[in-house]
């Protein structure tokens, strides 16, 4: 039986003290275990007291950090100095005969999308104009797509951060917006079947994309056709237009099972048909070549194989690439002359170009080991050249054209970062032992002149959930930490997908504790190796990475001097018990279903909110978004209150909430830079570098 402790909170009405949240105990009993939630009322978003609390938290955060304004300004100026504000992406060809590009302008937050058939570039979508027209504090176009002939443009725009979008359509020949405007459309999915029919998705009461619809241009929304409704709450629905133009796929996926439905472009009014059906525990996704689907599937092993499936069905299945326990196939993209397999090899991304007929493959050679490579904008099916993206912690993002015939690597553009000198920094891949003997990869970036002499402040970042990999990337904000002597390390802990599918499975369900102990052991290993001063360590993670931060703080509050938990998933048990909350039902296949007593007890053993106890917690920064649909504002807010109730140290616990944004923070690039400057200044101050106005 768990002991029940009711915190005592002293009222401190002055701004230099943290807000005094009201306690209203809510008692629940599950599986014979009684829990008391003193702050359940904070979930009432319409309660003015909640907004007052969040405003008070922001005022307290401002008061506690007012002395850091000069450092924040310096950091922001450094970020802008590394940003070429007037910038243009390498144009990419489209099968509609147009060439497209995106560019940015100085002083403007958002991109401008253009196209050309010669020397004249025409604006097709100016996100700045759209945002300014509606006077939106938050604005994001989550998806845009041009019809096959290039006549019409459709886009989804989110003006709250809650990922409930408006679908709009523009005639690109006249420049006029059509009256076809749909509200409450799910973000991220949009696909044209042909020039007259557009597919989109809708969400259920739990904000889960669960319906696929077909809209005919020029008709009323009431005439739209429902293509599919997914009633199993574990599954999310999305749409894709196949590169060869054969049709649109409706992709249905849970954490462990998937199904793909197909609607052909030459029969746009038809109902979707399944590609391979649905089998529990089997995941697959598809691309297409004339007459056949190319399928990535895990039916013979966790790292997936690749097969070709003719339109005749299973009997015509041909294996192109078998399962490999050392190579994790994460995606397959079909072109007329080759297949391109996205992979993970040795913990890092890789691409393999495969001859579809023979199965012979060639791995694309990369300039650096600790780097990230992936497919870029590739809209054309029949092409001798494919577009790649490449970057590393010291190599700014590159746009690369790869010639399929001879693997010729041509850098079309490297992001211009003024005064950047990669030779001043080192990037290292380390492997550190976890307590069970598993070797955990670490990507480490530091100034070249630093030595592993146990004097370096460090920021240690982690995630470790959903099989998502934390790929090493170039950041124009990170050098401001490095130049001030901070070592930055990414712990590629179990629960992520860095080392293959089994790496993920060994950090979920009842193996979730491996995620947390891996992170602790990496921290200790970096200290033992001399890379970090144990008294000057910051730990950082967001979303499910915020769960990581909350869990390890309860397990080892002495492991850092400061922690930053961004939009943290910390109220695990209460959230997983409430099927009405977005994502919950689908998350049963990540964390377990608490209706099962064993799963309930296991997640209760690490849930950050439920395991806060009298301990010397370090300085903690909690950041949140009021309109976050993934981790609702109340999770970080309740956790902040409870941490303050129990901590036995004098270290401040500070919460800062963006009152007009969602899961990703501010939508514009300048607003996001301001947020990062605020957060980095906080960490630098706690690492003893608050006076380092200049590097």
pLDDT averaged over residues: 95
Global Rg = 25 Å
Enumerate the spans where pLDDT stays under 50 for 5 or more consecutive residues: 1-14
Helix content: 10-25%
Tell me the quaternary state.
single chain
What does this protein look like?
- It is a single chain.
- The protein is an alpha+beta fold and 695 residues long.
- The chain folds into 2 domains: 51-80 and 421-689, 3-Layer(aba) Sandwich (Rossmann fold), CATH 3.40.50; 94-282, Prolyl oligopeptidase, N-terminal domain (Methylamine Dehydrogenase, Chain H), CATH 2.130.10.
- The protein contains 12 helices and 38 strands.
- The strands form 8 sheets. An 8-stranded mixed sheet has the order 31-32-34-33-35-36-37-38, sandwiched between helices. Strands 8-9-10-11-12-13-14 form a 7-stranded antiparallel sheet, with no helix packed on it. Strands 3, 4, 5, 6 and 7 form a 5-stranded antiparallel sheet that branches.
- A hairpin with a 2-residue loop joins strand 19 and strand 20 (292-297).
- Helix 2 crosses helix 12 (669-689) and helix 6 packs across helix 7 (544-555).
- The longest helix is centred in the last third of the chain and has 21 residues, at 669-689.
């Amino acid at each position: 039986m768990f002991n029940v402790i009711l915190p005592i909170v002293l009222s401190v009405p002055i701004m230099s003290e943290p807000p005094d949240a009201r306690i209203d105990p809510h008692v629940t009993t599950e599986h014979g275990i009684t829990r008391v939630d003193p702050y359940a009322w904070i979930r009432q978003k319409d309660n003015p007291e909640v907004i007052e609390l969040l405003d008070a938290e922001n005022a307290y955060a401002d008061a506690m950090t007012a002395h850091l304004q000069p450092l924040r300004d310096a950091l922001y100026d450094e970020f802008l100095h590394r940003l070429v504000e007037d910038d243009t992406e390498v144009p990419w060809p489209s099968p509609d005969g147009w060439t497209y590009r995106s560019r940015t302008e100085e002083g403007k937050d958002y991109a401008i999308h253009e196209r050309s058939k010669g020397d004249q570039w025409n604006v097709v979508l100016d996100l700045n104009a759209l945002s300014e027209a509606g006077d939106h504090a938050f604005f994001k176009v989550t998806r845009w797509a041009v019809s096959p002939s290039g006549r019409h443009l459709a886009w989804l725009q989110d003006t709250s951060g809650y990922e409930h979008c408006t679908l709009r359509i523009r005639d690109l020949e006249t420049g006029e917006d059509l009256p076809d405007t749909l509200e409450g459309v799910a973000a991220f999915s949009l696909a044209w079947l042909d020039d007259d029919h557009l597919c989109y998705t809708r969400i259920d009461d739990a904000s889960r994309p669960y319906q696929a619809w077909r809209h005919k241009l020029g008709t009323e929304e009431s005439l739209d056709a429902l293509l599919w409704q997914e009633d199993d709450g574990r599954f999310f629905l999305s749409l894709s237009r196949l590169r060869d133009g054969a049709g649109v796929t409706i992709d249905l996926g849970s954490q462990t099972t998937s199904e793909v439905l197909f609607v052909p472009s030459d029969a746009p009014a038809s109902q979707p048909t399944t590609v391979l059906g649905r089998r529990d525990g089997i995941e697959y996704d598809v691309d297409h070549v004339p007459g056949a689907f190319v399928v990535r599937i895990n039916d013979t092993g966790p790292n997936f194989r690749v097969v070709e499936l003719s339109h005749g069905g299973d009997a015509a299945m041909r294996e192109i690439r078998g399962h490999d326990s050392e190579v994790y196939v994460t995606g397959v993209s079909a072109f007329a002359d080759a297949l391109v397999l996205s992979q993970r090899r040795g913990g890092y991304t890789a691409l393999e170009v495969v001859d579809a007929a023979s199965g012979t493959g060639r791995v694309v050679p990369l300039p650096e080991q600790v780097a990230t490579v992936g497919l870029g904008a590739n809209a054309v099916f029949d092409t001798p050249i494919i577009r790649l993206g490449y970057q590393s912690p010291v190599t700014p993002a590159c746009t690369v054209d790869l010639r399929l015939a001879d693997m010729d690597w041509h850098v079309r553009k490297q992001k211009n970062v003024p005064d950047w000198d990669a030779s001043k920094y080192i990037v290292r891949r380390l492997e550190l032992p976890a307590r069970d003997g598993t070797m955990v990869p670490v990507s480490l970036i530091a100034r070249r002149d630093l030595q592993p002499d146990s004097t370096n402040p460090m920021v240690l970042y982690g995630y470790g959930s959903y099989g998502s990999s934390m790929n090493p990337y170039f950041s124009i904000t990170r050098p401001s930490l490095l130049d001030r002597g901070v070592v930055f390390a990414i712990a590629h802990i179990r629960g992520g997908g860095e080392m293959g599918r089994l790496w993920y499975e060994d950090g979920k369900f009842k193996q979730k504790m491996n995620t947390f102990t891996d992170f602790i052991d990496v921290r200790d290993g970096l200290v033992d190796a001399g890379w970090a001063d144990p008294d000057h360590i910051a730990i950082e993670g967001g979303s499910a990475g915020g769960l990581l931060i909350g869990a390890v703080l309860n397990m080892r509050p002495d492991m850092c001097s400061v922690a930053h938990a961004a939009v943290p998933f910390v109220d695990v048990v209460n959230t997983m018990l409430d099927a009405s909350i977005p994502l919950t039902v689908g998350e049963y296949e990540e964390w377990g279903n608490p209706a099962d007593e064993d799963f309930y007890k296991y997640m209760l053993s690490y849930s950050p909110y439920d395991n806060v106890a009298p301990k010397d917690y370090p300085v903690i920064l909690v950041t949140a978004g009021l309109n976050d649909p993934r981790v609702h504002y109340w999770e970080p807010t309740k956790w902040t209150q409870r941490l303050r109730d129990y901590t036995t140290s004098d270290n401040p616990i500070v919460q800062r909430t963006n009152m007009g944004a969602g899961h990703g923070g501010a939508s514009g690039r300048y607003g996001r830079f301001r947020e990062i400057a605020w957060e980095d200044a906080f960490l630098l101050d706690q690492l003893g570098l608050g006076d380092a106005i200049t590097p």
